[in-house]
Sequence to fold (417 residues):
Amino acid sequence: MPAPTRSVEASDASRVRDAAAAFDDQVRDLLYRIGVRAAALAAAHAGMLRLLAEFAGLRPSTEADPLFSFDMFAPEELAGVLRVSATTAGGQMGFAFSAVRRLPRAMQALEGGVLDLQRLRSLETAVSPLTDEQTSQVEEQVLAGGPRRNRGAFGAACRRAVLNVDPGGAAERAAERRKGRHVRLYPGDDATSTLSALLPAEDAAACDNQLNQIADEIIRTRDADDQRTRDQIRADTLVDRITGRTPLRPLPCDVQVIVPITALLGLGEEPGEIPGFGPIPADIARDLAMRPTSTWRRMLVDPLGALIEVADRRHPSPAQVRHVRARNRTCVHPGCTRRATRTDTDHTTPYAAGGPTIVVNLGPLCLKHHRLRHHPDRPWIVRQPRPGTFTWTSPLGTRFTVHPHDYITGEEHLPAG
Fold:
């Protein structure tokens, strides 16, 4: 059989390129239509909330309803229409009435597709203990930053705004909430159950860190017969620790707490923060910092909240890793919420391509997104135009930007202007 001619090879390559381009066009079209539907769904949710709020606000005259029975049976009537329980219907009425009455700008953002229903619920929950005036201030602060890059970041922004607007009340609510700490057992299916604990944030973070450290040690030293997943090891370790089922040597464990110097000195009430959890009242942050076993590490930031440093090594030094993880608190792929402490420190410009080992060329990437970046067929392109700011370009050409953590606002450090 004669070898294929160059023209045949070129024709085959052209067909492959055309097929790939057609597929990419199909993906772009579907993503666009999904975005349109998501905005329409948000607007529909806003319309439903306004109807529910109007229904919740209905009140018949005293003559027509002397026993106020409508208030008692309105959730039952709504439950029949929505095909949910009366308790669920009552909860939806309360949420809608509160959102429409107390969060008018957030409702407009929902109607415009800027927010989704889950983000609005996070905001409404956060402001529930506040006065109307305080609620308006929180709403303004949160909406000024937009929808954030994921729902977790938006929820943290809501909590931080509440701490900024009502630091004293937040500390009182936190103290009261901590009194309700408990452990609950919820029976499940297929011979499993859920064990849940409501704990002070720093205690929960310490438990989670300890489980991670023990799991790391087990994974590093286990033999080939141990095929457990990381989650399975963490679950087994929890049982081992509580019941004493298996003797385990203790491992050191720490919880990072970030406290503004003004709050530490008692000169201000700016909230502190536990990475991976979010903002905490200044009183609690001060208490954690002043405990006998606490150690302090100074972190200098500029007036806009950003960090700075230089070094040149093939493998990032511990100091560089600490800096990068403090600057970018999660994996820098857009939408990823994995904590930086659970990632690798990646060279933005690869070392093999001449990229230096300095913090302005380093960033935290989880294993999944490290692989995504270097995928042989459909790689994502990443650049770091400013320290801690990462621009990603997807295989379809869509561009995303992730910014470093801002230690003044507690959110992403957006460039001026």
